[in-house]
Amino acid sequence: MSELNYCYKYPHPAVTADCVIFGFDGVSIKVLLIKRGIEPYKGKWAFPGGFMKIDETAEECAKRELAEETGLTNAIVEQFYTFTDVNRDPRERVVTIAHYALVRLAEVKGGDDAEVAQWFAQSQIPSLAFDHDRILRMALNCLKERICFEPIGFELLPEVFTMTELQNLYEAILEVKFDRRNFYNKMLKLGILTEAEPRPENASRRTPTKYRFNASKYAELKQKGFRLEF
Amino acid sequence: MSELNYCYKYPHPAVTADCVIFGFDGVSIKVLLIKRGIEPYKGKWAFPGGFMKIDETAEECAKRELAEETGLTNAIVEQFYTFTDVNRDPRERVVTIAHYALVRLAEVKGGDDAEVAQWFAQSQIPSLAFDHDRILRMALNCLKERICFEPIGFELLPEVFTMTELQNLYEAILEVKFDRRNFYNKMLKLGILTEAEPRPENASRRTPTKYRFNASKYAELKQKGFRLEF
DNA sequence: CTTTTTTGTGTAATTTTTACGCAATATTAA
DNA sequence: TTAATATTGCGTAAAAATTACACAAAAAAG
User: Fold this and answer.
1) For position A111, what pLDDT does the model report?
2) Cβ within 7 Å of strand D: which of A 124-183?
């Protein structure tokens, strides 16, 4: 018996936090989707998300969802838009505060259930439940804008990475191609990359230099306000 | 007797839409504030805003508030962040979807009551009710970012304006100074300005050229994706 | 064993940005 | 009334950034 114990003078919408979880496999951007097990939209894919508890913030809620779905606890989670269409959920009026999270694929342990949660390459994403198609579009746009101001890409790459991997990431997010040498020069000139380990003597031409994100240099740059132009 | 007629199985937060209303008087950015007449924070200044009705979107709610406070009905209103701190309102759990609006000061008829609503220059804004100080900081930041991608400034200026007025607006929002001649060149090269009227023959050097925003040129540019660098 | 791909390092040409100069004439101050 | 100051339009030379490529070594692929 569902008792209706929480009563208000005026109608209140329900509030949820949804989380678009982005990963990167070295070549393309992936998104983690959940197959819905219950109505509405049973059997359709959707973003992880759920009702915000009365004593948690939206970000805490999104992080909780993220932890439940991927086991990750310290990823970047950021709110990007709140969707308020009146009929976006057939059950009741639901306002959702949409977030995106950037996670390293390698650190994601299988998830709860491979049947239920699955990574999709951008090009293979099916039509989604609720207004999640629209949410995805906005999340991707947001990612594009954000990567020009903050090196969020480092959240998506492993600790140590090659310049080519970094370039692939930028190309995947921005959906453009860069000249390899120009990209290389621009990134190095920014000064936020450090060589992960001294290049071995015997390193051949084909062995790529490994880089690591230089957090302190980045913090310095960010304060001055920088912008990546592409 | 306040009857509690709206009941739910789980607690629901209240949802409000607040609206940071920006205006520009030719020299500096102004913000419209309301003096609160009731508790909590009675007597403190705050942004216009109110509870979202169950059959309106957040943006509709913000536009309704804007119309009530300024009489304007077709201004740009855009959501920029949702504030969800658990104790941001002492009465009950309230989530607010914050918007900003850009209005032409000249078109704002006095408002309801000069005693209650008042324009404040940025430097004279008092400490605000609730978490509105934080909301203002984020709104100003958002404005700074937005003006580099979209000529939102035109919403703040009169139909017809001089290059100096436009420069003042950019300087006020971005809090920097530009070289007058470089600003002039950069703006003209963008091609989104049209001379409002052919310069009269007898126009003296000191009579500034009047410009008007060229909407079609702008739409074209926007599609290609442009960015104002400053 | 030949061909293709990948990586590091440049560099010259072009474009963009920056920092000013100058003349004409309103406006303000004396 | 007159002198000083401020505002506007139009340039331009120097500096900086971006773009478009070249080349060689060696691993990987066929």
Assistant:
1) 57
2) 179, 181-182
Q: Please provide the average confidence, as pLDDT, over all residues in chain A.
A: 91
Q: Is the pLDDT of residue A196 over 60?
A: yes
Residues B172, B63: one domain? no
Domain count, chain A: 2
**A93 to chain B: closest CA residue:** B54
| Token digits of residue A148 | 């020009």
Q: What's the confidence (pLDDT) of residue B228?
A: 76
Average pLDDT over residues B135-153: 91
Chain B interface includes A91 (CB < 8 A): no
B15 vs A: CB within 8 A: yes
Please provide residue A198's backbone torsions phi and psi, each rounded to the nearest 5 degrees.
Answer: -55, 135
- Residue ending a domain, among A120, A146, A172, is A146
Contact A95/B15 with Cβ under 8 angstroms?
yes
Which of A95, A97, A145, A230 would best serve as a mutation to test chain B binding (most B beta carbons within 10 A)?
Answer: A95
β pairing state of B94-102 and B14-24 = parallel
Q: Considering the entire predicted model, what is its pTM?
A: 0.94
User: What is the per-residue DSSP string for B187-217?
Assistant: HHHHT-EEESSPPPTT--TTSPPEEEE-HHH
Co-location of A181 and A124 in the same domain? no
